Amino acid sequence: MKFIDEYRDRESAELYARALSGIITRPWTLMEVCGGQTHAIVKFGVDELLPPEIALVHGPGCPVCVTPLELIEKAIDIAARPNVIFCSFGDMLRVPGRDRDLLTVKAQGGDVRIVYSPLDALALAERHPDREVVFFAVGFETTAPANAMAVFQAAQKGLTNFSLLVSHVLVPPAMEAILSSPETRVQGFLAAGHVCTVMGFTEYEPIAARYRVPIVVTGFEPVDILQGVFMCVKQLEEGRAEVENQYARAVRRLGNQPAQQVVGEVFRVVPRKWRGVGEIPMSGLGLQPAYEAYDAELRFDVVDRVLEEPSECISGQIMQGLKKPPECSAFGTICTPEHPLGATMVSSEGACAAYHRYRRIRVDGAGGVHTS
Questions:
Q1: I need a labelling partner for 27 at 20 to 30 A (CA). Which of 44, 92, 143, 259 fits?
Q2: Within 10 Å of residue 339's Cβ, how many Cβ atoms?
């Protein structure tokens, strides 16, 4: 496929792998931030091409995975109410709550609809003025502009039956939380290219300087990732800690400034709880006071809820790069895509789903799970 095949070219991939072998002198641990990168790494065997000194660990780069249990429960509560049309991207429908998910609500008669854009939900609100239309606004900075524009347009149109259940999270505070942990293994980052397409990468420059870690903005195809790894390891071997841009075909240093402006108009930075990780200060987006009329948590009075994560799910450790999916005792046994314990097994970008789908699973006599 034009513009894709060149980034999946085997010879180019092997060239970067050989180049890495030529410069590496000691072990290094790198974290890719985006779940899309995780899936590419596992699907195409990128990690298996790397010299053994390089370890790739998986970060909290899937917004579906980090949406906390109480937000899922709020979504389920709202979606089950009469007179509500609850709209969401499809990958949120099977994320488990305490005892059911949004797909179950739909099966039980709730009006739960899959949409491809928040503007689709806005159009539903215009067509159904007698119904409350709620959009589940989940995502990193990448999806924030479209969600902000939906709210902005709702205000311009004077719609009173449209609202967002907001679960937006921000990448830089999560990276700082990982680097601040005494348990961290991370010595360099592959930053998410699509996030930087919107936000640019100036926010990463103070992080690289403060923690002395290289950060390479990286794309999503195998050659992108291998080039990003090469650039990151080269910095480490040379004792540098800078922000570099591998994904220059899509990312500029200052990002998409009109998109940033609409996000700043509608959203403000707030603390946010991350599933399996806990609350990270100033790591999310919430609606500005001027747009609180569009806040579904306030409209449906579901603000104050706190729930504990299932103790048998280690997704938090996986998303902090401390463990990999096969190290979980539930992986592939009591936790599968059909019967998930956590969101990392459900999401199309979840690390557990990637390993379950692309790596052959063996279960030994003692019940242990391995990949090969």
A1: 44
A2: 10
Which helix H or strand E contains 283, and what residues bound it?
Answer: strand 278-287
Residues 6 or more apart in contact with residue 368 via CB below 8 angstroms: 329
Collapsing DSSP to helix, strand or coil, 100 comes out as: coil
Q: What is the pLDDT tens value at each position of the chain, 372 positions in all? A: 456 778 888 899 999 999 999 999 999 999 999 989 999 999 999 999 999 999 999 988 788 888 888 999 999 999 999 999 999 998 899 888 888 999 999 999 999 999 999 999 999 999 999 999 999 999 999 999 999 999 999 999 999 999 999 999 999 999 999 999 999 999 999 999 999 999 999 999 999 999 999 999 999 999 999 999 999 999 999 999 999 999 999 999 999 999 999 999 999 999 999 887 889 999 999 999 999 999 999 999 998 766 676 677 888 888 888 888 998 888 888 888 888 887 888 887 888 988 998 875 543 434 444 444
Asked whether the beta carbons of 254 and 205 are under 8 A apart, the reply is no
Alpha carbons 372 and 367: distance in angstroms, whole number: 16
CA 262 to CA 174: how far, in whole Å?
23
Are 217 and 244 contacting, i.e. CB atoms less than 8 angstroms apart? yes
| CA distances for 349 relative to 41, 296, 352, angstroms | 11, 26, 9
C-alpha distances out from residue 125 to 84, 108, 109, 291, Å: 10, 22, 19, 17
Indicate the CATH number for domain 1-310: 3.40.50.11740
CA-based nearest residue to 353, from 372, 338, 368: 338
Global pTM value: 0.90
- Report domain extents, the chain: 1-310, 315-371
Q: What are the CA-CA distances from residue 196 to residues 33, 200, 271, 320 (Å)?
A: 12, 4, 21, 21
